[in-house]
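Example record

One chain of 438 residues, shown exactly as stored in the release files.
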Amino acid sequence: MPAWHSNLNQQSSNKITMFVRKLLLILVLAISTPLLVYSQEKELQKRDVRFTFIYPMSTNGIESTDYTARFSLNLLAGYHGGLDGFEIGPVNVNRHYSRGVQLGLLNATGGVMEGVNIAAGANLSQLDMTGLQLAGFVNASRGAIQGIQLAGVANSNWQNTLGIQIAGITNVSRQEVQGIQIAGITNANYDNAQGVYVSGVVNVNAGRAQGFFFSGVTNLSRDFQGISGAGVLNATRFMHGIQFSGLANVAYSATGVQIGLINVAREFQGIPVGLISLYGDGRHNIDVWTTDGGFSHVGLKLGTKHIYNMVSIGYNPLINDRDVWSLGWTIGSYRDLVERWGDSKYDGYFSKSDFTIKNIQEGRAAISLDNMYTYRFMLGKDFSGGFKMYAGPSLNLLISKEDVANQYTWYSIISGTTRDRGWRVWLGLSIGMQFLSH
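Predicted structure tokens for this chain:
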């Protein structure tokens, strides 16, 4: 027979064998769950040793569900009442409970599982599971878990989880989680969660979450309390705590701190830190102001009534031989003087202070080492209709590599050079107007 023909037959035989194995596993999974009935109080007859070829071809026959054993060997598939020791087999199914160690392609228990389950395919425990489960494919438990679940692909639990779940791909829990979930790709929980979620890609919680969420990509939850960190997105309905992400934080109602390039909520109380912090009940202002150095600016101010973020662009018309402009980001606080000092005679007056990081460009946009850092304190008057005017002193620091950048300031209190950069410090003045309501 030609070698290629022999190889072809061998490949066909392997495919048939794999198909039969998968079919057997599917059949066992399909029939094992309805066979599992929680009955922890049932008195079982005890045997030291039992052997099963495939149920009911065993030393206990069709009455195997009335027996427990210290040592059990299942050649193909065993179906027994309980286990109080050690069990080996491709398929191990115990109707009432398992106390000890199970090894096999599939382990299924209808009652309490105490000890260690080890399976190349799946571990199933219908009710309480206490101890450690190891699976090359899936760990599943329909009861509270206390201990650790480890799986090469997924962990799944339909009730409370206490302890740690670790999976190469996914952890799933449909009830309250207390402890830690760790997954290479996704953690998913559909009810309350307490503890720490750690995922390489996504954390998902459709219920309440308390604790710490950390994800390489996205955290999703319905209600959240604690700290949530994601590389791309945090999204929740109600949040009380801290959200920080590399891109966006989104919530319907939030209290606490949001840190991200984009922060969005319909209702928000707390501290926003972002390029854009857009809130339905927050401020939406346009600011126009000028400074002693000749720069005139226009900025979009967003955030809450008391804490705001602003992005701005500026231009210096006093420098005629070239175009000098700037991009800035500001975080600041706002207080009505009536609130601050508790005196109605200050009605309509306010104070605000902020800190601005500004990059100065000349001509076309490019990477520049010209940066200005400014702290301002201002007093102002609200003239109603969203129009306000304010003025106040500023403390400025300019760091620049270009000598011509000294033209951005008309004097300095102190100045110097550090390595290849020059720096200047001066006191200045800022006068501006604000439009639209908060």
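Notes: The mean pLDDT is 82.
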